[in-house]
Each structure stands twice: as structure tokens, then as C-alpha cells.
Specification:
The chain is of the alpha/beta class and 450 residues long. The chain is 46% helix and 14% strand. The protein contains 18 helices and 18 strands. It has a five-stranded parallel β-sheet, with helices on both faces. A five-stranded parallel β-sheet has the order 9-12-15-8-16. Helix 6 runs parallel beside helix 7, helix 13 packs across helix 15 and helix 17 packs across helix 18. The longest helix is centred in the N-terminal third of the chain and has 25 residues. It is globular.
Amino acid sequence: MGNKYNVLIIDDERSFRELLEILFSNEGYNVFMAADIAGSQRIISEKKIDIIICDLVLGKEDGLDVVKWCRENSYNIPFILMTAYASSATALESVKLGVVDYITKPFDMDHLATMVREVITYRKNEDYEFFTELDEIKGKSNAIKNVKKYIMDVAKTDSTILITGESGTGKELVARAVHRLSHRALKPFKTINCSAIPYDLLESELFGYKRGAFTGASYDKKGIFELANGGSIFLDEIGEMPLFLQSKLLRVIQDKMVQPLGAGTEIKTDFRIIAATNKNLEEETKKGNFRSDLYYRLNVVNINIPPLRERKEDVEELAKHFLKKYAVLMDKNISQISFAVMEAFKTYPFKGNVRELENLIERAVAMEKTNRLLPSSFPAHFFGNYENFWDNQIPDLEKPVDLEKIVENIEKKYIITALEKTGGNQSKSAKLLGLSGRVFRYKMEKYNIR
């Protein structure tokens, strides 16, 4: 089998463990065995296990508890459960935990061996494609791994996809990855931002027009639905599309027929729709701002990209990626990011998500004179420096003000913000605000902050 894969067998019955050991040793695997949960945890912690075959009932213990422990400790190992007591409830719970499959005793040994071989082969190919085709999507968090897996699962289909997430999270990057991994990869990928084009021009950009259709239409123009024939269309910020165009878009998606402005006939076209929005379209339908029938037509498959503040473990990899990119573009010998900057990344809110991080790195590379990104190359607000707080907020003293109350509100606001940024760590919050621990605790008590 080439590389030897590690199989862990968990069963409380010794003779059955040994039977499976013979089977998988003959198949060319390295076999490890455990009789209970504690034993399995030791092996999983010490060895790189590629697949686990586990009995559902381990004496008085539950085999699903092994699965739960692995998931809680970030061991993303495929499981096959064995049971003599099959039930729909067990099957449902195992699916929720990400179990690959479960097999009912007694079973055919060759069937189990085939199942294991298929799972390992799929995982190997999946990992390879992750690295080769999804390399542009940076991050090691479980959230990003799940996004990548979802892309792999849906890319080969022709289902319409709705990508949701805040501005700057990388929705277009995901859309391009879906297209690149699909059977349409060699065909056009056309993109249009529904919020960036005036309403009166958006219709002609989408559907095209014939010469003479309106004043200034001096030639025939193809819309993106015709230009993308055989490929994919990315409709960015679909939530900004006006209602009168939503109804026409719905008909085009349903019929795969486009009628350019001023044309007397429709044109058959073949395309896949990938839409994206930073709005909650379900709420927009309730408000009457978005057609519910179009929403359900678009939301066949939903890929949600979490904001960067919820996956801070991705920041370092992203920052290094952008540093390398802009160092090359600007021909600068900068290869490192200082410890102080990396620490600041951990508490910075990144309201603009990945796009804001990229902009910060680009600015820093442009400003930096050394071979590493130092704090001096970043804007003051990045480190919580509020010395210029009043620069753009000239106070109105036409009427009397309660200065003490204003100062208290400002202090309270920054203390709460600092605590949120540091996950409630008082020591780090005090340092962020330039206060001693004693003064910080005093102010927390003063303003009744818990």
C-alpha cells in the first residue's frame, strides 16, 4: 500500500481485537489496539492515527464518548463504529459527530477492509486537493477547514451557492475556489458587484442589450449571463439588487434563458450561480427588501465564512502571507513580523476582517525601513493609542457640560473594550490602557464593571 497507515481498533473483546489485527496487518496497515476509552486516548495522544474502528459498546463505556473526546481535542480522525445493537437514534447521533459510517455485527470482514481502504484513499486525495487547489484560502482554524471541506463537497455539483459573511472575509476567494474545482473550471468565471453599479446600468450589464435599445446603445452588448456560457457567475452583494431586477433574475435562473434589452427573442445559456452577501437575506425578505422566492432559489447551498475576530488562530498565517506578497511587490527585504505586532494582532478587533489585515500589512511594508515589521510602521490606533481622540471631535461648549461625567463615560467605554479584546484578562487590559493593575481594579469597582 506504499505508505503504511495507522489503524486503531477499540473493542473490549480480546479475541475480536486480535481477529481484526490479523485482518488489517495482512492489508498492510500498522495496527494499534485498545480495550477501553482510557487506553484509546493514550494511543491517540501518542501516535498519528489515520482511522479508528471502534465498538459502540465497550463494557460499561460508550464508544461515542471516544468520538466526542477526539472532536473536543481537535483530533480530526475518521471513525467507523461497530455495533450489534443498531438503532436510528445511534445512527443520527453518530452522523452529528462526524462518524464516517457504522457497521452492524456480524459483518463481512472483506467489506470492512474495503470500507477502511476507501475512507483512507478519500482522505489522502482530499488532503492533496486542499493543499493544491485551496491554498489561497489561508488559515488553520476549524472554521476555515470546514469552509474548505464544504467547498470540496459542493464544487463538483451544479447547485446554486450562497456565500454569507461580513465584508472583507473573502467571499470572492471562496467563489473562485468553487469554480476552479468544478467541471466548469476551463470555462469563464464572470463576476459583478451588484452594489457598485448604478441601478440603471446593472440590468444591461447582467442581461446585455441590442443596438438601439435605448439612447446611446450604438452597438450590441452581451451581458454576463451570455458571456459566462458554460461557466460560473459570481453575483457579489446580491442583497443590494433592486426588486425590479430580482424578478427578472429569478426567471433567468429558472429557465436558463436570457433576453437582452431591445431583443425580440431569448438566448439559451448554461451557467452556475454563486451569490454572496453580507446581509441577512432572510431578514431582508421579511422587510420586503428581497424576494423570498429568489432567496430560496439562491440558498440551495450556504457557505458561511466566520469573521476574523472569531478565528484569531488564522491571523498569524494570513499576516505572514500578506507580508510575503507585499515584500515581493515592493521589492523589500522584509521577512519577519515583530513580537509586539503579533501580540497586538491577538486583541485587535479587525472590524474589516481579512481585508483590513491585508491593508494594515501593505501599509506597514510600505513604511518599514528595517527587515521586520515594527510597531512604528502601524497606525497609532492599532495599539490602542488614543492620544488624538479629540482631533476630529471638537467639543461644543455653547452650553454647559458635565466634564466629569464625560470623562467617566469615556473611561468606562475603554475599560469595557479592553476587557472584550483580552477575553476578560484584567492584567492585559490594564497594560493595554497604560494603567497599573491596582488603578485598573479601582476603576472597575468605581464603574461597577464585572
